[in-house]
Task: structure prediction
Amino acid sequence: MNSPRISVLDLAPVIEGADHSQTYRRSVELAQHTEQLGYHRFWLAEHHNMPDIASAATSVLIGHIASNTHTIRVGSGGIMLPNHAPLVIAEQFGTLAALHPNRIDLGLGRAPGTDYPTMHALRRDPDNMDPNFDELLEELEFFQGPISSSQPVAAYPGAYSQVPIWLLGSSTYSARLAAMKGLPFVFAAHFAPGAMHSALSMYRELFKPSEHLDKPYAMVAVNATLADTDEQAQFLATTEKQKFLGMIRGKRSKLPRPVASMDPLWLPHEKRQLENQLQESIIGSPETAKTQLNDLLDRTQADELMIHSMIYDQESKLHSYKLLAELVSANLR
Result:
């Protein structure tokens, strides 16, 4: 099996001691670094009301990253479509595509990307807090398509843009929809791995060729922390574990520094929950990571991996992405 493409998922994480301006500089540096290493895409995700994530204005940040890189594809992983009018997304991504031709991707999710009060603030309509995702997607595709003579509203820019649409999910819902519409599919194994195999199987079994794809194309998003030694990687990965521990407890704060041991921080049931939630995380030296990656690829047959890293120290983070790129360029096995 040939090595898959590798790409980057960045949430513009705000680390302890940093502000938003510093965070965006780190994201630009990561994008430029991974572009040089041969990563295929650099995606940013929409989240709101979270002190540790600075990618809320996702389209704005995509434009900034694209303006500071040259060849890497830049996009959303994803835009939470129910938060927006499809016309607005068509216009935003049509604008991005005009500014950066053949480099923009539009990954879509149907979750709110936030809590209920913020969802209410975003959507503002208490009687329509769960709009039909299938219908929103069709409307978006309509605005991205050709303009008819009888069409009263059109996306300028946006129409004829042909920005590639991806469907993202952590369940079988988006997998089924992506298959029926012949779209590429991304599974979010970096935070919800439980339905990964069933979703990928459903996607491939139900896939219908379309103008977009003639066969299924599946990407899997995973967390990865690589270092020169297993011990160093495990130390760096305590940042990821602290982050998820805070989420379990309903507490959000900036991305924390790594710690020598998680044992004083979690309770036994929290440890079990975290280990289950992070079961697909790649953590270790290059040799250890190679074994984990080969196993993941054997089980998923992924066409592409999207790597998310929660490493606190920027130099260690850049080094992790470098080690992974070297593994993949050597065809892993």
